[in-house]
Amino acid sequence: MKALMKASVLALAALWAGAALAGAGGGGNQASHMEKLAILLDLTDAQKPQVQTILQGEHQQMKALFEQTKAAGGKPDFQSLHAAHQQIHQDTLTKLSGVLSPVQLKKFQTLEQMHHGHHGPPGGAPAAAPTTN
Fold it and tell me: Per the confidence metrics, is the pTM higher than 0.70?
């Protein structure tokens, strides 16, 4: 039963990843991915366009950040890029928290963590080291 649940969650994460990768220019494919995300999060008809707008906005901000860094030439400051990325992402979560229920937001964050391969505690905090007494 546990293996089936894990497989189901991984499949859901893959579907969400497809929605995230569709970005703003996915055309008809984007609608399909958004519909899958709507099913995963159990979005209402009113929430769907709001969530789509928020995620497209995040995608556009990330793309602009990438283009800005590319246009500057030279060696990119990865620490600054990471901080900017984190801020954009936090802004997106803040916007989503105004649209999604706490349960839906938690599902979104779980899918997102799975998509990005984070296996530790939420928020990127390192796992506590086991104690040996």
Answer: no
Nearest Cα to Cα of residue 58 among 29, 107, 23 = 23
Contact status, residue 5 vs residue 104, Cβ threshold 8 Å? no
Domain that holds residue 73: 2-116
Q: pLDDT tens digits, residue range 7-58?
A: 444 444 444 444 444 444 445 577 777 888 899 999 999 999 999 999 999 9
Which residue, among 51, 28, 48, 45, has the nearest Cα to 97 in the 3D structure?
51
Domain count, the chain: 1
Span between the terminal Cα atoms of the chain, in Å? 34
Sequence-separated (6 or more) residues with CB below 8 Å from residue 56: 23, 24
Q: Is 131 contained in some domain?
A: no
